[in-house]
Design a protein that fits this description.
With 205 residues, the protein is an alpha/beta fold. It is built from 7 helices and 8 strands, in the order H-E-E-H-E-H-E-E-H-E-H-E-H-E-H. The strands form 3 sheets. Strands 2-6-5 form a 3-stranded antiparallel beta sheet. A 3-stranded parallel beta sheet has the order 4-7-8, with no helix packed on it. Strands 1-3 form a two-stranded parallel sheet.
Length: 205
Amino acid sequence: MVHHLQKAYEIVAKKIAEDPTRYHNVHYYNHAVVQDNNMVGNMLKEQVFIPFQVPQENIHLLDYYDLHKQIADIEVAGGLDLEVLGLGADCHFCVNMPDSTIFDQLVYSFDPKQYAWYEENAKAFGLNEVKNMASFGFKMINKTKRVVMIINGAKKAQAVKNILTLPVSNHYPGTILRYMDNLTLILDQEAASLLTEEDIKNVSN
């Protein structure tokens, strides 16, 4: 499961390297977890926490067996200031997957074995049996003060068009995102290549 935001993380890491101590007041909360496996935590450690030089005390990982503790801790801290997301070619965001997404929950769990990426990642991260996953839902993401979604590449072009034009459905989870007032989309030319002026006008309205 190559993270959608790897290139963006590399850019941020270079900026932080100029003065790491300037960002030591920033706390990091993740939005997905695998039952009985640290797959997500290990991926974030490699791609984010080590490159960003994040102090251990500033890392807050979601606990599958106490999902609502993360939500309570965020509320005590004053809420999330920023959520940075990618978009999958199947229109998933976070781990809100096609046909498993529950829009009206802050956080929920689901069985991921139906998805093609699961077996590959299960082998890569030492999972010998199907494990459930949990994710922040749209209701939780929508509580964030500012959400930025970065999408690049021609492979995501149809997904971009879908989230901006199709009716809301959990088959295309990202369709719910256009109803957020706090969302900024950053697209490269290829990712935006299927959008028409009418599509953009409709979203603006």
